[in-house]
Amino acid sequence: MTPPTPGPHDDAERDVAAVVQQDVGAVVEGGVEPPDHPDDPDLPENRGLRAAQDAVGPPDLGTRVPLDRARIIEGAIEYVDAHGLPMLTMRRLGAALGVEAMSLYRYVPGRDDLLDGVVDTVVDELFADPDVHFEPRHGWQDYLQRLAHGVRRIALAHPALFPLVATRPPAAPWVRPPLRSLKWVESLLRALHTNGFTSVQAVVAYRAYTSFLLGHLLLEVAQRGVAINAIDDPDGSPSGDPLDLVEFPLIVELQPLLSLDETLTEFEESLESLLDRLQTMLDTGSHHLPPTGFEEHAVDLPQTGI
To answer: Is it true that the peptide bond before 178 is cis, omega within 30 degrees of 0?
Structure first.
């Protein structure tokens, strides 16, 4: 169902007009910008999916989709894809689904729970991506390349939602975006562990990898007209009950390492690496940056959208 355009009568519920340019996930005037490279294989429209900026077609007259938690969350994703995150309220979502807002609270206690469900659902799209492997089949480099492109496809499919993935309180305090799923963090750490990385090396690689993904993809969605300069939950407090981590033994084992704050070191090391590459480009007279360690070990992937 096509989400209704927010009207002036909704302003009493949440005055978003003054902050729409600042709020996370806000779509700037003119909507989500089209990609500079329309043949990009990671774009949803090039994978047989609906582009994020396209409205969802209305259902047939007289057709009513049964309401449940999954349908509500999918409706919220569709609404944010069309209008931006700050415009999402329970009232507007109810109108988009053809029900009263109070009907939603039977399945989602409130907006925070709704947003948690949205993040979980969006990240879980990785499980349905045929080009992403939950376990490394062709080595850790191939695994990381596929996972990176899978996360990028999520960002391009839901640019207005990706900043939410980056800013919602994590499931565990040492889990870093954009891999908000404990299952995927465990998968990544185990992929490295089983391919010769020590615990320290695995955590260093995990931090560098997530920093690369987050920085690159936030800039990419910002270039497409999505605001990323504020957080949805300024308190940053986790919602819900503490999680049982018994199914994630490697995360528990590496918690002390994962909890360390190495952000400054990571920034300086990344900057130093970039400067070294620029110096090499200058010395050789090349017009291209030399490859990084990841690119030196890259493998050719099948032409399946990666």
So the answer is: yes
Q: Are 270 and 208 in contact (CB under 8 A)?
A: yes
Confirm whether 122 is domain-assigned. no
The 10 Å CB-count burial string (b at 16+, else e) for 176-186 is bbbbbbbbbbb
pLDDT at residue 219, rounded to an integer:
84
In a domain, 183, yes or no: yes
Torsion from C-alpha of 95, 233, 17, 121, nearest 10 degrees: -40
End-to-end CA distance of the chain: 31
Q: Is residue 19 assigned to a domain?
A: no
Q: Is 196 left (phi over 0), alpha (psi -120 to 50) or beta?
A: left
Domain membership of residue 160 as a residue range = 131-229+262-284
Nearest residue to 160 via CA among 49, 51, 45, 235: 51
> What's the 3-state SS for 81-149?
HHHCHHHCCHHHHHHHHCCCHHHHCCCCCCHHHHHHHHHHHHHCHHHHCCCCCCCCCCCHHHHHHHHHH
Same-domain status, 93 and 176: no
Do both 145 and 91 map to the same domain? no
The tokens for 98 are: 């053809």
Q: pLDDT digits over 208-237, tens only? A: 889 888 988 898 888 888 887 544 443 444
Tally of domains in the chain: 2
Indicate whether 213 belongs to any domain: yes
For 50-60, write each residue's pLDDT tens digit: 554 444 443 44
Examine the domain organization and report whether 97 and 170 are in the same domain: no
pTM of the entire predicted model: 0.69
Name the phi and psi angles at 226, rounded to 5.
-110, 130
